[in-house]
Design brief:
Elements lengths: L1 H7 L4 H7 L4 H9 L6 H11 L3 H4 L11 H9 L1
Helix pairs in contact: 2-3
């Protein structure tokens, strides 16, 4: 998923790595599935790509982020 969404934005691994303040080689390992992505990195990527963490984790096909009102409503329960 990460390479596809990155390439859709015409970005390089190096550009995303810079955004995340890491080496390109480490970011490449995320894309290749060689290392697990830390939660804070997933959140930053979801915010940057304006998508949900579930989309990045293959838990949904819906690229749209969740509405803030839905999140707030779920926090009440």
């Amino acid at each position: 998923m990460l390479p596809l969404i990155r390439e859709d934005k015409d970005l390089t691994q190096k550009e995303i790595a810079k955004l995340l303040k890491m080496d390109q080689s480490n970011y490449s390992k995320y894309e290749l599935g060689k290392i697990n992505i830390l939660l804070d990195i997933i959140i930053k990527l979801a915010d940057f790509y304006e998508t949900s963490t579930n989309y990045l984790l293959y838990r949904t096909d819906n690229r749209k982020p969740y509405s803030k009102s839905i999140v707030k409503e779920n926090e009440k329960h």
